[in-house]
Amino acid sequence: MLYLKGTTIERFISMPIFLGTMEEHVLIKAGLTANESRIYLLLLKSQEAIASDIAKQTEISRPHVYDSINKLIEKGLVSYVIKDHKRYFKAANPNELINYLEEEKSRIDDKKKEITGFMPKLLKMHKEMKAKSSVEVYEGKEGLKTVLMDIINNCKSFTAFGATHKFEGVLPVFSKLFVKIREEKKIKADILAVEGENPIKTKMNNYRWIPKEYSLPSSTIMYGDKTAILLWSGEPFGIIIKSKEITNSYNSYFKLLWKIGKKK
Questions:
Q1: Which pLDDT band, with edges at 50, 70 and 90, does 131 fall under?
Q2: N or C: which end of the chain has fewer CB within 10 A?
Q3: Please, what is the Cα angle at 68 between 67 and 73, to 5 degrees?
Q4: CA–CA separation, 177 vs 190, rounded Å?
Q5: Mind listing the pLDDT tens digit for each residue in 192-216?
């Protein structure tokens, strides 16, 4: 165990830094705690030991040793015998680890079945909540991807204007995937682009071009009863506004610009 001692940092750090062996880390990944894995490995090497010896050799306090041993016994990984009124603990065959994982998998499968049966009610609750107007903010490039995936997962067509040419520059790989999915789903879009810009080329997009004075630093996309606003520069982020009233308002503005836009 390593602790930061002798500085003011100590007041804010109460958890020990765990530096275990490779075997301990493997056991932790299998579902054991750090203390449980250390005790189990010690018992494998020593065949059997009493609690006081385990505490000394692992440097784990006696109360925590007993707590961890009880959990290992519950998992079928440790047993004990009584000699001279003392309990000697011993590790189970390592093959029991596989049995333990199989039992854990079975328990997880049972929980999954239970949740699956309850899912229709949960989805209904979620749908009722989503019916209300809402605003969601997603930060960073991953946030932009989340917003864009919401668009192609929830509409058959959309309209957009503002900074649409920045998509490929900010998300070069994802922009290709976005276009590919749209083409597979046949999701079409009417898009206003500013003269001089080079937006994405795809048969799914129908462009009209407007003067440079209408240039914007963000993109606004209307789909269904939602409006997405994407800011590409600086620290990018996306906003999803769920509101028929707001989306209708943006669509009205879009239609006015669409009328003055030019085809190429």
A1: low
A2: C
A3: 100
A4: 19
A5: 999 888 888 899 999 999 998 888 8
Instruction: Quote the tokens at residue 56.
Output: 């000394």
Q: How far is 35 from 64, CA to CA, in rounded Å?
A: 8
Cα(90)–Cα(185) distance, rounded to whole angstroms? 60
Segment 176-188, tens digit of pLDDT: 999 999 999 999 9
- Residue 46 CB-density burial (10 A; 0-12 exposed, 13-18 middle, 19+ buried): middle
Q: What is the dihedral of CA 9, 15, 19, 23, to 10 degrees?
A: -170
| 3-state helix vs strand vs coil in the chain, percent to 5 | 50, 20, 25
Domains detected in the chain? 8-95 (1.10.10.10), 134-260 (3.30.870.10)
196-205: b or e for each residue (b if 16 or more CB lie within 10 Å)?
A: eeebbeeeeb
pLDDT by residue (tens digit) across 34-73? 999 999 999 989 888 999 999 999 999 999 999 999 999 9
By the 8 A CB rule, do 124 and 217 touch?
no
Q: What is the pairing mode between strands 226-231 and 78-83?
A: unpaired
Token pair in block for residue 161: 């204007």
Provide the 10 A C-beta neighbour count for residue 26.
Answer: 13
Regarding beta strands 86-91 and 78-83, do their DSSP bridges make them parallel or antiparallel, or are they unpaired?
A: antiparallel
